[in-house]
Amino acid sequence: MYRRFSLNDEKLEDFKRGNFMIRFLRFNAPFKSETEVHKKVNDMYIVYSGKAKVLLSDDYEGGREVEPYEIRGCNILNYETIDMKSGDVLFIPANTSHQLLVEEGSLTIVIIKIPEE
């Protein structure tokens, strides 16, 4: 199946096929996502424009399971801060706690959800 996407479209739509999903998102500062851990899904962040910080760690505590294998609202412990800008790509493996921060300007990002199975 063929489908064309443009990040210049006013309304970006997600694409989902089976367990594979592409999300097109725009955020304006200040923005702080909820912390999350995907037990069976890898994330790939592709920054189209703007800049952001991503907190990452294999170490976290607490949180709530919002659906099977998906944790939200955890406390990220011993995290590393990754600075991202236009053109950067970040692969976040399953079981890694993460949080996205936009501190100034705006961010347009493509997030690809890649199942482990």
Features:
117 residues; mainly beta; Jelly Rolls; three-stranded antiparallel beta sheet; 0% helix
What can you tell me about this protein's structure?
There is one protein chain. This protein is mostly beta strands. The chain has one domain: Jelly Rolls (Sandwich), CATH 2.60.120. It contains no helices and 13 strands. Strands 1, 2, 3, 5, 10, 11, 12 and 13 form an eight-stranded antiparallel beta sheet that branches. Strands 4-8-7 form a three-stranded antiparallel beta sheet, with no helix packed on it. β7 (64-67) and β8 (70-72) form a beta hairpin. It is globular, with a radius of gyration of 14 Å. The protein starts with 14 loop residues before the first strand and ends with a strand.
Structural class: mainly beta
Shape: globular
The figure for the number of domains is 1
What does the largest sheet look like? Answer: 8 strands, antiparallel
Question: In CATH's first tier, which class applies?
Answer: Mainly Beta
- Mean of pLDDT: 92
SSE ordering: EEEEEEEEEEEEE
What is this structure, in a nutshell?
With 117 residues, the chain is mainly β.
What is the secondary structure topology, with strand pairs?
Blueprint: E1 15-17, E2 20-28, E3 31-32, E4 36-38, E5 41-57, E6 59-61, E7 64-67, E8 70-72, E9 75-77, E10 80-85, E11 89-92, E12 97-102, E13 106-115
Antiparallel strand pairs: 1-2, 2-13, 3-12, 4-8, 5-10, 5-11, 5-12, 5-13, 6-9, 7-8
